[in-house]
Write a structure and sequence with these properties.
This protein has 4 helices and 4 strands; from the N terminus they run αβαβαβαβ. By secondary structure, the chain is an alpha+beta fold. It has one domain: 2-Layer Sandwich (Beta Polymerase, domain 2), CATH 3.30.460.10. A 4-stranded mixed β-sheet has the order 3-2-1-4, with helices on both faces. Helix 3 links the parallel strand 2 and strand 3. The radius of gyration is 18 Å and the shape is elongated. The mean pLDDT is 89.
Length: 118
């Protein structure tokens, strides 16, 4: 039975919508797990922001988790990053706020999703 162009387009749109819904659900679940991890850490005096596609949209199959930390000693960055990678089973990248360019610091403050401020 031949398939019309309209049917093919409708099928492709349905598949795209289903993929988008799966990515959105995965992103929401991952954000919730990240909030639990952030709350569980001893982060007195540390601010954490979620940035990148998980915070700003467009999270997909190849996306990673991008976190900016202000006030986190450099020796703790690797330990926390590694722990989060194992806990989330996702690629995680921690950036130190103090090492970012001023323009990027401003974007983090303006558009980042604050996870913790202590």
């Amino acid at each position: 039975m031949p398939v019309s162009v309209e049917q093919m387009i409708a099928t492709l749109r349905q598949r795209a919508a289903a993929n988008e819904a799966r990515h959105a659900a995965r992103a929401a679940e991952l954000r919730a797990r990240i909030e639990v991890l952030a709350a569980a850490e001893d982060l007195r005096g540390v601010e954490l922001w979620l940035i990148g596609s998980l915070a700003w949209g467009g999270f997909g199959v190849r996306s990673d988790v991008d976190v900016v930390a202000r006030g986190l000693p450099i020796e703790r960055v690797c330990a926390i990053e590694t722990a989060w990678i194992f806990a989330l089973r996702e690629q995680v990248e921690f950036l130190r706020f103090e090492e970012l360019q001023p323009s990027f610091q401003e974007r983090v403050l303006r558009e980042g999703v604050l996870l913790s401020a202590r």
